Design the sequence.
């Protein structure tokens, strides 16, 4: 008697939850079609009529959003999709956004496209996987959405079907996506802060919307959801294994104290004084921010700096990093490897090398924020696989770091990184062979 | 440029003289167009090596071209041939025959027709075949046969390699890896005289080989 009452209770709760989830994910499609049509009218009359100007604006916005990085496979036509994106839950493949009628978005209206950006739902009502950061694209204005579509539809159509995702069952199912979205997603259109300047608000719009900075620069939970669109508190990127620094903490990025011009320079050229971009951020500069206007980059810098300055006092509460106590064996091994493999470029005193033109050829290790990050992931990546900074219009021939993966083992690398983190006034924790091995193993060699 | 290519020479040896283990080939003195095409092949997914791809992904095509021209301009002596795999004299002779004469019955041109009479390559896009370790030659020919390595379409090397069975490929590589470099190690300025390549063997990465003007002496 009692169990059946509990059973009934559970069934009713489940039914109610299901109804809620369905309502939560699709209701706007049934209720708002009339109102959106209405809101489109004044909008469209206000639009400039020059189609070329609209296409150009759309291309600019697509660059600001670095859409091309995910929506193009290696060697294939830009925006034709099919790039494999590995997640902890399986692989997803990006969609073909060229105007092909069968495999792309050739038949999409501005409303369909807006629905994808704003609600994370495809033209046919299908819920999109959140590998597409639609929490961020929901910030984008309708005008910008229309411009983006105008540019996409100006591209040559490419007939290329998107391979099916290979997510673990049931995670890729519409039911699972619907539940996930009810838990973690609702559209957050941009609301300007009237207490701030127009420039600050422009920066906030770009950082939280198209720029989708928090997609990497915020921690992800166990179900893969990142923080709020303006959560810039840093996070370890799953699978690719790079640590996207906490943009609100000056000790990690220097955003509170660096002159605005330097922040703009970093985003535009890939380097500025002591800061270099590498890994996924190099890709952002290469395909995205280097193409943005000075005004937009400045606006982003203003916004990011204000966020970092606001958080600066709170950050003081974090305990100061303690210089690691290092065993004699590790210390001498670290010094030996540094002298043999690193000192030639980074200097005997970790002072780095500057070119005659005053640019950083090889960054200093002493006082380098990237060296001192609590999480050594990026350092391990750099030593294992080396790399170049992005070649950009204003910094076309960056210097590069050789990979050490074939030459140094986990113990060597942990010792030399520990050396870097404890010399020349640097005070950071020891790097263990296990930490190196974890990243090497995850990258498959 | 020596400074800017330190990331390359860590594996490919000082001045691009080749790595010690046979899998990182020599870069020095190869035709610039060939080197540039290889960098593009890695960037665009026709050749696969994760370490290479990671290094060049952030770079522009113009910068990759600068690097290619830099390594192409370097003059370095070649090592003595070191191949010592066990192979019969008959099979080596077969290798030599395929390299120098091809096999008309299979529509197979001689290697020398594109890679130069001295086999030191042809400007600007065709690499030399001498001075390469046997392991490297085998790995590349094998990769072409399985489709792991590709060139710009139409891919003439893929077409050629498909017409040669694996045991003959080893005869070819074994013979090549036993040859000393000639006195003049530079790539030839023009393809050797002779009929142009048949239409079925057009080279996307070296279109000059199939031009109707064909083999200028």
Sequence:
């Amino acid at each position: 008697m009692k169990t059946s009452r509990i059973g009934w209770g559970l069934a009713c709760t489940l039914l109610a939850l299901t109804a809620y989830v369905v309502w939560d994910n699709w209701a706007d499609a049934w209720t708002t079609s009339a109102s959106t049509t209405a809101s489109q009218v004044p909008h469209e009359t206000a639009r400039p009529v020059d189609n070329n100007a609209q296409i150009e604006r759309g291309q600019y916005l697509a660059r600001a959003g670095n859409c091309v990085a995910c929506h193009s496979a290696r060697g294939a036509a830009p925006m034709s999709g099919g790039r494999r994106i590995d997640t902890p839950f399986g692989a997803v493949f990006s969609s073909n956004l060229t105007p092909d009628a069968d495999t792309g978005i050739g038949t999409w209206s501005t409303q369909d496209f807006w629905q994808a950006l704003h609600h994370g739902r495809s033209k046919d009502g299908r819920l999109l996987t959140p590998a597409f950061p639609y929490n961020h694209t929901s910030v984008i204005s309708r005008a910008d959405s229309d411009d983006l579509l105008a540019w996409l539809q100006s591209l040559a159509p490419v007939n290329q079907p998107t391979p099916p995702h290979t997510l673990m069952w049931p995670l890729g199912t519409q039911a699972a996506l619907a539940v996930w979205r009810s838990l973690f997603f609702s559209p957050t259109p941009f609301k300007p802060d009237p207490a701030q300047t127009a420039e600050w608000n422009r920066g906030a719009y770009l950082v939280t919307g198209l720029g989708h900075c928090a997609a990497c620069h915020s921690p992800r939970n166990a179900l893969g959801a990142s923080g709020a669109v303006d959560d810039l508190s840093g996070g370890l990127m799953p699978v690719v294994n790079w640590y996207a620094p906490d943009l609100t903490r000056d000790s990690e990025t220097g955003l509170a104290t660096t002159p605005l011009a330097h922040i703009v320079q970093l985003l535009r050229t890939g380097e500025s004084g002591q800061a270099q971009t590498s890994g996924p951020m190099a890709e952002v500069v290469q395909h995205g921010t280097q193409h943005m206007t000075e005004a937009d980059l400045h606006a982003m810098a203003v916004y990011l700096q204000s966020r970092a300055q606001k958080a600066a006092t709170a950050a003081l509460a974090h305990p100061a990093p303690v210089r690691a106590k290092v065993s004699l064996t590790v210390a001498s091994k670290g010094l030996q490897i540094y002298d043999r493999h690193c000192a030639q470029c980074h200097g005997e005193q970790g002072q780095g090398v500057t070119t005659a033109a005053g640019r950083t050829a090889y960054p200093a290790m002493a006082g380098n924020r990237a060296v001192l990050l609590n999480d050594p992931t990026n350092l391990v990546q750099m030593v294992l696989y080396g790399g170049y900074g992005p070649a950009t219009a204003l910094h076309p021939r960056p210097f590069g770091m050789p990979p050490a993966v074939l030459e140094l083992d986990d113990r060597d690398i942990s010792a030399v990184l520990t050396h870097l983190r404890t010399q020349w006034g640097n005070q950071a924790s020891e790097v263990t062979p296990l930490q190196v091995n974890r990243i090497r193993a995850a990258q498959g060699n | 440029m020596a400074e800017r290519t330190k990331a390359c020479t860590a594996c490919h040896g000082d001045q691009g003289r080749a790595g010690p283990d046979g899998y990182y080939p020599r870069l020095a003195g190869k035709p610039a167009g060939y080197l540039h095409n290889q960098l593009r092949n890695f960037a665009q997914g026709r050749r696969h090596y994760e370490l290479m791809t990671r290094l060049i992904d952030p770079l522009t095509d113009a910068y990759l071209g600068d690097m290619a021209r830099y390594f192409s301009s370097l003059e370095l002596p070649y090592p003595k041939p070191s191949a010592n795999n066990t192979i019969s004299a008959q099979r080596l002779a077969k290798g030599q025959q395929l390299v120098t004469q091809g096999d008309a019955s299979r529509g197979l041109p001689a290697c020398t027709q594109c890679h130069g009479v001295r086999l030191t390559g042809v400007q600007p896009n065709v690499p030399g075949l001498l001075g390469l370790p046997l392991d490297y030659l085998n790995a590349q020919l094998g990769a072409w046969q399985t489709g792991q390595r590709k060139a710009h379409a139409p891919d003439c090397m893929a077409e050629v390699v498909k017409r040669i069975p694996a045991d003959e490929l080893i005869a070819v590589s074994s013979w090549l890896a036993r040859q000393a470099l000639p006195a003049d190690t530079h790539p030839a300025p023009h393809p050797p005289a002779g009929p142009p390549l048949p239409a079925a063997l057009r080279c996307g990465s070296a279109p000059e080989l199939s031009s109707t003007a064909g083999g200028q002496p």
